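In the laboratory, one determines a bound structure by crystallizing the protein with its ligand and collecting diffraction data. In a computational setting the workflow is compressed into a single prediction: the sequence and the ligand go in, and a structural description comes out. We illustrate the idea with inosinic acid.
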Amino acid sequence: MDYKGNVDRVLYDRDILAERVAEVGRQIKADFAGKDLVVVAVLKGAFVFAADLIRAVDLPMAVDFAEIISYGEGTETTEEVVLTKDVGVNVKGRDVLVVEDIVDTGLTTAFLVDHLRIRDPRRVDVCALLYKPAKQRVEVPLRYVCFEVGDVFAVGYGLDYAGRYRNLPEIVTLKELEREE
Ligand code: IMP
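The predicted complex, in structure-token form:
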């Protein structure tokens, strides 16, 4: 089945995404003006969002990446979280903004935040594209949220299902969550 045929609902289209990302970018600019900002984009899911967001924040900043694997091929969070790529820049004394695709249980984000705090940043905040408050299990310093969603499985704009759909320009739900061959 092609991508379009398997789309159930469009949750956020390109215009809504662009508008909201610009708005959150302006808030971040206002909050971090004059600060030594390091943006840490979490791979893979946040790469599209982060690429748009950093261009909406008109401030000097460093940008780095961390990769964390938490989901298998399904839609439920596994308890096991593995850091597969660490941040390379020195975050000591700096203001770190973690850019996440989605905070679901919060386990992945909390793991990265704890990992970063060991390196003595001035503060760590989180900016999430999507937030599922009903599913949250652990506290995370969530300062910016683009959209709150219910208990749906969303794909597109960087978010995947079984490694696919990241390149959809909109955020959608799928009709079928079966593995497609
Ligand atoms: P958490 O640890 O439960 O907060 O979620 C960790 C990761 O699960 C996120 O960073 C996503 O990569 C993935 N995830 C959770 N919910 C969704 C979803 O609705 N669509 C796609 N990926 C999701």
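The first strand starts at residue 7 and ends at 12. Keep in mind that any predicted model is a hypothesis to be tested, not a measurement.
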